[in-house]
Predict the structure.
Amino acid sequence: MPRTTAIASLLCALGVTCAGPVLADDGFPHGIPRLNHVFVIMMENHGYGQVVSNPDEPFVNQLISSGEASYATNYFAVAHPSLTNYLEIVGGSNFNVLSDNAPNWHSATPCTPNLASNVPNVDNDAGIAGNFDTGTICPIAGTGADAATPAIDNYNETEPPFPYLANIDGVKSIPALQHVQGMTIADQLAGAGGTWKSYQESLPLSGADKVNYSNGDVSNLTNLTPLGINSADVVQDYAVKHNPFAYFKSVQEGTSPNLSLSNVTGFNGLYADLASGDVPNYAFIAPNQCNDQHGRGNGDAFCAFDFGINPSNSGFTYGTQAGLNPELIYQGDVTVQRLVSAIKGSPAWKQGRSAIVIVWDENDYSGVMSLPQPAGSVFPAPNQNRVLLTVETNYRHGPGVSSGKFYDHFSLLKSIEAGFGLPCLNHACDDGVQVMSDLFGEFQGSDD
């Protein structure tokens, strides 16, 4: 589609008067009402069954039970680990990145994007043989092939405390895509005159550039020696692996005024923008690792990992609520309530069409058991990376719905692109990737 048509489509979505309806051409998904604002709240590392009906998650469950929000019962993360899912949510591809490794900022050492090298960047903590890249991630750019997503991988998150020989990525494998564009929805919006921001809790005031982790004050850039401590003493609240836009060359180098690291700010910026009503069309909101239910090994009781032991059978939880850290779950729920309340209290929520999406990046308990278990122990089957997604809008007529349709992170990207009148990107264009019309619709069962 010509760029002028894409711009016209976006202007309609942003509330500018249009001469007529925007028609859907090839490559442009439809089925979602035109949206002014989308707020995506990213939570961490818990499966569907660990969140739904969990008494330590009262606010999220009240959104569902009251009908305030629609929710998906058959929604899946695509792979492991975190960063891969974040890239897929914003860019429709893993871009040959199957790790949580930090960026090679500004290509400080000469590097080739994994899209071009066709060599996947992996954690590979199992040390298996293969042609892998395990270093920092070259800024994503250009075109090329991404990595296939196997139904089961055996090189990520297999060492303790993960009691797995391998991770179940999802209910199906996804073949590699040969013509991946190294870009995200941020590039699409910037090119069409739209706006976006990545709001990252505990980001230092100095900004995101070259910051891999931070507690809000000190970071990997801080000289800790005069303080008599080392990096292991710092709670890594902000983690760059939860800020996917920072991995792209266009954002690192600031290729345009609307596409740079200046679009990444902390939660002070988020609450200021919400209070003024001056919010972007696309707001990507990532609480820190103590508030997103990820947890840290050196945090307090409300931040401690909850990869717990099931006291009934001395085994790991494997996706159940048994053995979870109730403080970590509750802390995350309070964080979501605070964010949703601030969004609904913003002048922006009262203007045009807006949607709040709450989604978990992956089910970190979807593994293949590797530890010997006591005689008579019965474990549930792995949950195959099923996670919760909710959608609440300011325009729906009637209560929210429960959708059992198969959706995944690519469906979420495609749905948001449909709402903004943007073309689908990378795997969001794959056959079988559905727009979530039932969750984003104006009426129950609505497709427009």
